[in-house]
Amino acid sequence: MSQEHWKSKIGFILAAAGSAIGLGAIWKFPYIAGTGGGGAFFLIFLLFTVILGAPLLIGEFIIGRRTKLDAVSAYQKIAPGSFWTVIGRLGVVTCFILLSFYSVIGGWIIIYLFEAIRGSLDGLSQDGYGTLFNDIIANPGPTLFAQFLFMLIAILVVAKGVQKGIEVTSKIMMPALFLLFLVLVIRSVSLDGSMEGIKFLLVPDFSKLTSESVLFALGQAFFTLSVGVSVMVTYASYLPKTQHLPQAAFSIIIINIFVALLAGLAIFPGVFSFGLEPDAGPVLIFAVLPAVFSNMQFGTLFFIIFLLLFLFAALTSAFSMLEIFVAATTKKDNTKRTKRSWQLGMLIFLVGIPSCLSYGVLSDFLLFDKTIFDLFDYTVSNILMPLGALLISLFIPLRMSKSMLYEEMALGSNVGKVFFHIWYYVLKYVTPIAIIIVFLDVLGLWDF
Ligand code: PFF
């Protein structure tokens, strides 16, 4: 049985950063920062990422590398036959649902890319972009086809394996993403009146912060780091003992924050410079950005570049979601990888069809007052991911000994005892308490 492993440390960091950076940082972050108070939201998001997200990320890495097993088997090995084995299965189910609707948005990016290249976005009015976008997502044929294409790319890369597929692709895609983003940011901040947008993102105005935006910032911190679903357990299981886990975690967190910052700096200066609204919501990127770019020289080209890197980012996240599934069902037996990637990828596509149709023929089909897309998104973001994160933050201090945790954390390079203890106690107390508060709020039992 041949086993996978990462070829290089940087390959692992880029692949894990690729999982983290996706629709969360590029699509969701600007619009919830836009509606949630700009700079103040950004600051709270930063704090949650560093204080709560980082310990969980290190924790998932430790579980993965210690056991060298897939997400389901890892918990079985540490706590055989116990309740805790539910964590791995929960992560797999969450990723399944998440990828089924994530691929819908991936499909929208592909269609928009196609439309931008074809020139159909040229010369439209601000309202025209919104109308065009709504027409596009309501049309079942092209959206389903694009969603299928998105899944197809994910299947082909994951079937190739960790080293040849995910690592090689991430190594090319991630640096390209930074470079392209830098071009966009330079263009955006050099616009007339861009200062207002920069201030909106970077100068905190706490009067704009609501309790809801604090909760969104917390959810966003977990979502963008891909923590709580054991994807990072799976990725870390391919790591050699020489990798220093806290260092890897902090590199990923810094890259993640940097990309969210770049996304904000690419978008808000343009939004303000052209007198658009920062709180346009989920349509911000699709309906507002083409207008921003259309007013620029070489605007279409810049927009095409933006969509390409947006697609790259969404794909590298999709790889990780499919990989957790493939690893768990093949038990890392590589001979079954190709077949499983196809079977699971196609199944996820089929399950995602109703989500795709939620913006068209199924828009009136509501369950619990939500379209299927919204229901899936709500269940994953507000219930399953925080639940997974909560269970992991309880599992580690309860079921893994302190000495074992320290030993695993300190492999590769020394780790100070003080750092270890801060990590341990934050994970043990601060993380679960914060997540429980979010839960109580979601259930409407706590209004803070
Ligand atoms: N971190 C990804 C994003 O921000 O788009 C979303 C994600 C990927 C969440 C993989 C969970 C996961 F397992």
Multimeric state of these chains? single chain
What is the H/E order? HHHHHHHHHHHHHHHHHH
Amount of helix: over 70%
Total domains, how many? 1
Largest sheet: none
Span from first to last CA? 53 Å
Shape: globular
**Beta content:** under 5%
- By DSSP, the count of extended strands is 0
CATH class: Mainly Alpha
Q: For the CA atoms, what is the radius of gyration?
A: 21 Å
Q: Which architecture would the CATH scheme give at its second level?
A: Up-down Bundle
What does this structure look like?
The chain has about 450 residues and is mainly alpha-helical. The protein has a single domain (about 10-440), classed as Amino acid/polyamine transporter I. Helix content is about 75%, strand content about 0%. It is built from 18 helices and no strands. α3 (about 40-65) runs antiparallel to α12 (about 245-275). The chain is globular, with a radius of gyration of 21 Å. The model has no long low-confidence stretch (mean pLDDT about 85). 4-fluoro-L-phenylalanine (PFF) binds near residues 22, 224, 226 and 317. 4-fluoro-L-phenylalanine (PFF) binds near residues 22, 23, 226, 317 and 320. InterPro entries: Na/ntran_symport, SNS_sf, YocR/YhdH-like. Keywords: Membrane, Transmembrane, Transmembrane helix, Transport.
